[in-house]
Amino acid sequence: MSLFERLSEALGDASPDHVVLLTGDDGDAMLGGDTTLIDAAVLVAVTDRPHPGVILTQRTRHLRNHAGQIAFPGGRKDDSDTDLVAAALREAHEEIALPADQVRIVGLADRYRTITGFQVTPVVGVIPPDLRFRAEPGEVDDVFEVPLDFLLDATNHLEAEVEWQGRNRHYYEIFWDERRIWGATAAMIVNLSRRLSWTP
């Protein structure tokens, strides 16, 4: 069975209209019910190799929001984007020069609502191994690959908490090769690991 087929089978049918709030990430509850959420999409690019990996980026340290954090390529859906898949592909091309025609789309995973008012849809796709990426210096400091097995292993999902705006906020963090993956990116990885029935 190909990687694409395995991912398709493992992902199953995810409803694109379903918003998942990660259990314990109670910071999301601070958004009011009448809050208008902003659509965004990220690309979960899985490398087609015997031991697949996932492409992640490290954001530049001078950005106003989420400076230096680890993230999937992606961002806000523009009016010019036909759908969320198009948004994820456009952002991945802008950020790391990943050609859209090199991505075979598997499907959409559960959306994640951030405390900043974004509704983020992970778009899962398979890409050829060893593509050459070029980081957009205004947004991305580094592009790297993390083994898929490592990211989906629940023993690597560490729960943490921090006081924020007068209350304790619970979140996940994942440490790999001296890198700290946390916040919305870690939350989406945890959500994805719960949906994917994956065996190496």
UniProtKB/TrEMBL annotation:
<dbReference type="Pfam" id="PF00293">
    <property type="entry name" value="NUDIX"/>
</dbReference>
<protein>
    <submittedName>
        <fullName>CoA pyrophosphatase</fullName>
    </submittedName>
</protein>
<keyword id="KW-0464">Manganese</keyword>
<feature type="domain" description="Nudix hydrolase">
    <location>
        <begin position="37"/>
        <end position="167"/>
    </location>
</feature>
<keyword id="KW-0479">Metal-binding</keyword>
<dbReference type="InterPro" id="IPR045121">
    <property type="entry name" value="CoAse"/>
</dbReference>
<dbReference type="InterPro" id="IPR000086">
    <property type="entry name" value="NUDIX_hydrolase_dom"/>
</dbReference>
<keyword id="KW-0378">Hydrolase</keyword>
<keyword id="KW-0460">Magnesium</keyword>
